[in-house]
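Task 17 of the worksheet. Students: predict the tertiary structure of the chain below and write it out as structure tokens. Keep your answer in the requested format; marks are given for formatting as well as content.
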Amino acid sequence: MNRLSTRLLLSHGVVAVVGGVVAYALVRLLVPRLYDMRAHSMGQMRRGLLARALVVETVNAALVIGVLAGIVTAVLAGAWSARRVMRPLDAVRAATHRLAEGHYTEQVELPDELELAAVAADVNALARRLAETEARRSRLLGEVAHEMRTPLTVLDGYVEGLIDGVFTPDPETLTALGSELRRLRRLAEDLGSLSRSEERGFDLAMAPVDLADVARGVAERLRPQFDDAGVSLAVVAPDGGLLVHGDTDRLAQVITNLLGNALTATPSGQVRVVAERTGDDAVVSVVDTGVGLDPADLTRVFERFYRAPGAGADISRGTGIGLTIARGIVEAHGGRIEAASAGRGRGTTVTVRLPALRAVQAG
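Model answer:
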């Protein structure tokens, strides 16, 4: 009874039965009365009793045959209609089973019916997105393995050297070991942050925060890296008054990530940090003059493991999770983050918008 094909068939049968019963009842009720009225008007009431009975009997028999034929026809039509409807649904169901088994390349043929074609198109789109996600996941596993392999190889070499007496545990050797350990820890922290971002599980110490001060502090902390790379770093931010309700460390993490991406994407040129209030929002924008983005990449750069193609060798070394983490942090603050670019080679602007607080709310 829960099968759609059975319900379709029963619905056709019920319609046929109801229509037949109504038709039978009306004809059975009206034929004798109409016959009596006609016969009375013609003055043939008595002579027409036999003919009346014969007509009523004939009509009743014809009605029974007609109703049965209608029901049989409706059932056959319902079976054909149900089969026609269920064929594309069965194809969609088979496709979802293949998706569940990990076969993401197969596509469902679109049926002629618009509604069913829309369902099949959605399943095909889901398959494509799952295939892309699986490809990014596989690439991430390879990148994580590579990122871990390098420091682990270095650590293994140093430890074996220390055991064999090739190296001595002097400050220089221990510093090199500590650097590789910190690299592994950063990778683990990034993966943990990604997990919390997707689960909305950040631990936020919320308080009134001056977003302009956070932006200035991060910029000054990273300025030596920009100076070493020969990239100009400018900060445009008001003195106070750009208050938001947020976690200072997490917001600093977002701006640090944006500035790091901007530096990587700008071999030479300028990066600007602009903090301002726009309406009810506190806005921080990181504007660079670097490699830029294609229109198709403006939203996808925030997807996990995604890296814009052709962005250069420096960008390709990243794991592609920094902007995903940044988006999770911003959304956990009730804000939004978006990217804009005029195209390849024309720079990128990444904007963070958070609900602003009034200055009186700081107290």
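Marker's comment: The first strand starts at residue 207 and ends at 210. The CA atoms of residues 5 and 84 lie 10 Å apart.
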